[in-house]
Design a protein that fits this description.
Length: 243
């Protein structure tokens, strides 16, 4: 009788902070004397806001002198209106439990999970994955500790974080939107090449970054003699800001 093999993976996220010291904000007193006071004064472009008399009113329409993003390899600056200097690292797990369905020795089984990361006012972040490959009792599907391609009929468990065409069309490249700088690491960033080493960094941003959406492609291959039953695995994603 044919053997039925099924797989299920749980994914969770852990957030790690490394917070830099911050200075206390200092505010200047308004310019004033016994006869006058400037409540809204500026240094540089612009002037008083809504200066007025009985016959006129002048509204200062000068906004930001410069806006937008300027970046290099090691830093970036977002010019524009004042924003908070509090560092913020946030993530969301966009998919929970992953069900492979039934495994077969004749072809690979693939599925995906997704998560998002954004990072403000730090030097970037790293994303690590921790956990074991799918296990059924005493039998564990071997992790692909060397990056390689899918091979049907040979037990394999691996992942990557890019779009693939083999063994099927699955996954997606990191989506950085307008201001993201996240990317898959070298070991997990080549199409149709898979790997899994617990504790390795799978994604990172080299500087503060807007929202990046990541898709993890999971690959499982089994052999004709792989024991039947239900295979389960748990992975943890650890997101750490770098300062």
């Amino acid at each position: 009788m044919p053997k039925r093999l099924t797989g299920w993976i749980g994914v969770c996220l852990i957030l790690a902070f490394c917070v830099a010291a911050r200075t206390t904000a200092v505010y200047a007193d308004p310019l004033q004397s016994t006869n006058y006071r400037f409540d809204e004064s500026t240094i540089g472009a612009g002037g008083l806001i809504q200066s007025s008399s009985a016959n006129y009113q002048g509204t200062d329409a000068v906004g930001d002198v410069a806006i937008g993003n300027a970046a290099s390899t090691n830093y970036q600056v977002n010019a524009g209106s004042k924003t908070t200097n509090d560092p913020t690292l946030s993530f969301s797990l966009n998919s929970g439990g992953i069900n492979f369905g039934s495994f077969t020795a004749s072809s690979a089984t693939v599925t995906t999970a997704s998560f998002s990361v954004s990072d403000y006012t730090s030097y970037g972040y790293v994303v690590q994955i921790v956990g074991g490959p799918p296990t059924n009792g005493s039998h564990t599907l071997p992790a692909m500790t060397t990056t390689g391609a899918s091979q049907s009929g040979i037990e394999q468990f691996g992942i990557n974080l890019v779009a693939n065409t083999s063994p099927s069309s699955v996954g997606a490249n990191p989506d950085n939107g307008q201001f993201g700088f996240g990317a898959a690491t070298t070991n997990y960033g080549t199409s149709n090449q898979y790997r899994y080493v617990s504790g390795e960094t799978i994604a990172q941003a080299p500087k503060s970054s807007g929202l990046t959406a990541y898709t993890i492609s999971y690959l499982v291959n089994v052999a004709g003699l792989t024991p039947g039953g239900q295979y389960t695995s748990d992975q943890t994603l650890i997101v750490t800001g770098t300062y």
